[in-house]
């Protein structure tokens, strides 16, 4: 308590929300409702200077800090018991330089504000597909999305950054720190501003298709075979993505796909949409021209604002018939909760992220074509949490067993619990693991950012 009094006295202009404040419960709310950690206080800086003063204060007083932006970490790791949480969401300025193909953005910007401002300037960039996810948290953990084939993963869009370092100084990240930030999240500082790559077009084709799913094995098989034939005939264009999913709708379990044509040639995209729709009858198709912001708004009804979650991801080189069989079995056993979902992202060989000339120096190690199988073991009601958790963990175990020859060493950082990253070498590769350990020792020897993801 004495620390809290000192914080308020020493930094009178900083907004501090403590456990006694009525606002505390609202400020502490994150996406994963199953996490119930109680920080000492949540501070809401208005500037990089206030972030710097908070870090200096925490160091002087031996208090832990953590950083929270969108609060969408799948394990709620932004909330740390008895720590000072730096809620960085007020640092959300977006300045667009369309001619340079870049935007300067604040460290707390969320997907919605970024995509909205870019749309106003007739531009686009890969973003999280949900409006309330923090952009920096997304990009630092890889940044998956439907534009990855065309523009690369989010991580390859982070050009430069200003950070508040472990001494509480505002500095421009040098090349080594940038490499570490791209894939090892906030281990080297609080990112207060970055410059990112953007692209000069505003509208694409995007939306959701729900296929007729009376027999979801046949629905999936027809769509999958159709996509494989299309790829064989026509090398799928990088603008095209169909992200399949199984989920629970009010009328039962369904197989569907999020469709995206990430390019300005809408007529060409429409031709691919028609082909996809010809693979199997559908009961709903919301695909239409959209800015990135409108696409986020179109996704919103399918994702709850928060849920009790214990999700996992498995990275595989390819999806084999055995894995498809596992998906069908998993759909049969998926608990009847609208928040539960099984989905898989693909990143094809054409992605700029797999080509040294177009990817940036980083410790992000999954630099080969792959799929991320996302087991969204989410429950909209607390009483379903145990059941979805059991379902998710059983599916992860089955995939690791049945598809062992396809599994990549690294899973997706955002969806891997910290305690399951038992070897940085396995996760990042031996060279990157050594690099990260040396950098951490040099730039954060006292562990000011010890609650960042992953633990180094
Ligand atoms: C509903 C939902 C949809 C998602 N969609 C996608 C998607 O489409 N693609 C994808 O790749 N991922 C997606 N994710 C995962 C998400 O991108 C990551 O979990 C990301 O880290 C969340 O960032 P956040 O700011 O929202 O979360 P927070 O919980 O606020 O932050 C997570 C961690 O990131 C670090 N951090 C965040 N901002 C900063 C900063 N400015 N400086 C230093 N450290 C910082 C901190 O260590 C913090 O603990 C999704 C997650 C959810 C729950």
Task: Describe the overall structure.
It holds the Pfam family FAD_binding_4. Keywords: FAD, Flavoprotein, Oxidoreductase. Residues 35-201 form the FAD-binding PCMH-type domain. The chain is of the alpha+beta class. It folds into three domains: 2-87, Uridine Diphospho-n-acetylenolpyruvylglucosamine Reductase, domain 2 (2-Layer Sandwich), CATH 3.30.43; 94-200, Uridine Diphospho-n-acetylenolpyruvylglucosamine Reductase, domain 3; 204-418, Vanillyl-alcohol Oxidase, Chain A, domain 3 (3-Layer(aba) Sandwich), CATH 3.40.462.20. Helix content is 32%, strand content 22%. It has 14 helices and 19 strands. It has helices spanning 2-10, 24-27, 48-61, 111-120, 135-140, 148-151, 175-184, 216-234, 266-278, 292-299, 321-333, 385-402, 424-428, 430-443; strands spanning 15-18, 41-44, 65-68, 84-87, 94-97, 102-106, 158-164, 170-172, 190-197, 204-211, 240-249, 252-261, 282-285, 288-290, 308-309, 312-316, 341-347, 370-376, 378-379. Strands 10, 11, 12, 13, 14, 16, 17 and 18 form an eight-stranded antiparallel β-sheet that branches. The protein has a five-stranded antiparallel β-sheet with strand order 5-6-9-7-8. Helix 11 (321-333) packs antiparallel against helix 12. The longest helix has 19 residues, at 216-234. It is globular. The two termini are 30 Å apart. The mean pLDDT is 95. It binds flavin-adenine dinucleotide. The site of flavin-adenine dinucleotide has 35 residues, from strand 3, helix 5 and strand 9.
